């Protein structure tokens, strides 16, 4: 057996951990750029909380509250200019996958002068980015422990592009489940299904290895129990805690193996129809399942046995039946029954070409 498991991010997990932000930030300099979305972080009082903790430790800060869902190059460019103008030393990223990924790309643009497109792909970032402290407010992206960022290429074809580089691992991650208590069921569902697809794809990936597989199956098991519970009862702190833990585990393993074709297939649907990233993965998962099952029947059955406690062995080993069980689970986990996407045949063929073009490239986040 041989493998490499690289995770340089220091993880702080538990209720109330967000309050450590001041003490942690102090280690990395005098002034932080706090990168976040346009409304919810302020509305929910998270920015006020961070402001208080930073002030307590004498860390100066500026807010950049402009990150949109599926962030664009235009926005991160503005963020990088603002970082320089405000003479910041570090970035604190607060929010879902969009804010965390945008903060990473802002970091690249601050330190790496070439056009951003030259960093698309794997291992192309030359200079270290400013220290990044990641504080996720959803349980799904895993971006707080991955070397990946996804950005919409608004300067060219409006397609989502992946940057994968070890420079993008945050220095520290604060995972506080209390921050996810106010998430509405639809966001809990979309992000939870994203975490599930990270764990499933990592497990099925040809790049997986015994350690990553063990962690991935544990993430799948936990999501099987707690995602439907958190969708049903948003204030269930135990469910929120375990979901955040599972999302962390799933992030840890896609950081090692990358995702698979399921993520690649989802990107055009998110870019062109604005369907949330995790929901797209959920919509595609049952068909992906049925079509790919025969390639690795044992691995597929193990996934379904972990996700659905008590499923009979014969059902777990049947591609059609297990796909139906997964579909049923996804609906219990909040996935809409009739997603209703109207795609013209011509568009479908364009997407298929795009997916084939990206096949084999790393697909994440
Ligand atoms: Fe994802």
TrEMBL record:
Stretches assigned to the Fe-containing alcohol dehydrogenase-like C-terminal domain: 189-358
InterPro entries named in the record: ADH_Fe/GldA, ADH_Fe_C, Alcohol_dehydrogenase_Fe
Lineage: superkingdom: Bacteria
Keywords on record: Oxidoreductase
Domain Alcohol dehydrogenase iron-type/glycerol dehydrogenase GldA: from-to ranges: 8-177
SUPFAM superfamilies in UniProt: Dehydroquinate synthase-like
Cited Pfam families: ADH_Fe_C, Fe-ADH
GO molecular function annotations of the record: alcohol dehydrogenase (NAD+) activity; metal ion binding
Keyword Hydrolase annotated: no
Alphabetized PANTHER family for the sequence: 3-DEOXY-ALPHA-D-MANNO-OCTULOSONATE 8-OXIDASE, ALCOHOL DEHYDROGENASE
Protein name: Iron-containing alcohol dehydrogenase
Lineage: Bacteria, Candidatus Aerophobota
């Amino acid at each position: 057996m041989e493998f490499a498991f690289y995770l340089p991010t220091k993880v702080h997990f538990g209720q109330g951990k967000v309050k450590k932000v001041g003490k942690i930030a102090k280690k990395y300099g005098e002034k932080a750029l706090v990168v976040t979305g346009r409304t919810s972080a302020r509305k929910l009082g998270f920015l006020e909380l961070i402001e208080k903790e930073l002030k307590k430790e004498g860390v100066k800060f500026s807010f950049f509250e402009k990150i949109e869902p599926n962030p664009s190059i235009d926005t991160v460019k503005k963020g990088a200019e603002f970082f320089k103008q405000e003479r910041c030393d570090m970035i604190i990223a607060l929010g879902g996958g969009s804010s965390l990924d945008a903060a990473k790309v802002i970091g690249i643009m601050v330190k790496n002068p070439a056009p951003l497109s030259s960093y698309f792909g794997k291992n192309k970032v030359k200079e270290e980015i400013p220290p990044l402290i990641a504080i996720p407010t959803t349980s799904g992206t895993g971006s707080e422990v991955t070397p990946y960022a996804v950005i919409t290429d608004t300067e060219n074809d409006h397609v989502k592009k992946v940057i994968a580089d070890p420079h993008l691992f945050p220095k520290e991650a604060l995972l506080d489940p209390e921050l996810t208590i106010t998430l509405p069921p639809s966001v809990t569902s979309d992000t939870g299904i994203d975490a599930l697809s990270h764990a499933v794809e990592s497990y099925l990936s040809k790049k997986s290895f015994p350690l990553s597989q063990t962690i991935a199956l544990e993430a799948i098991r936990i999501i099987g129990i707690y995602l439907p519970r958190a969708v049903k009862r948003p204030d269930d702190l135990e469910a929120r805690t375990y979901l955040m833990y599972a999302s962390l585990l799933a992030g840890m393993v896609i950081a090692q193996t990358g995702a698979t074709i399921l993520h690649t297939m989802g990107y055009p649907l998110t870019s062109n129809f604005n369907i949330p990233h995790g929901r797209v993965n959920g919509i595609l998962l049952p068909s992906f399942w049925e079509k790919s099952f025969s390639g690795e029947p044992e691995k597929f059955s193990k996934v379904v046995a972990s996700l659905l406690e008590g499923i009979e062995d014969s059902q777990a080993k049947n591609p059609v039946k297990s796909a139906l069980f997964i579909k049923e689970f996804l609906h219990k986990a909040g996935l809409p029954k009739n997603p209703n996407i109207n795609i013209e045949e011509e568009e479908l063929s364009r997407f298929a070409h795009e997916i084939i073009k990206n096949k084999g490239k790393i697909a994440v986040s």
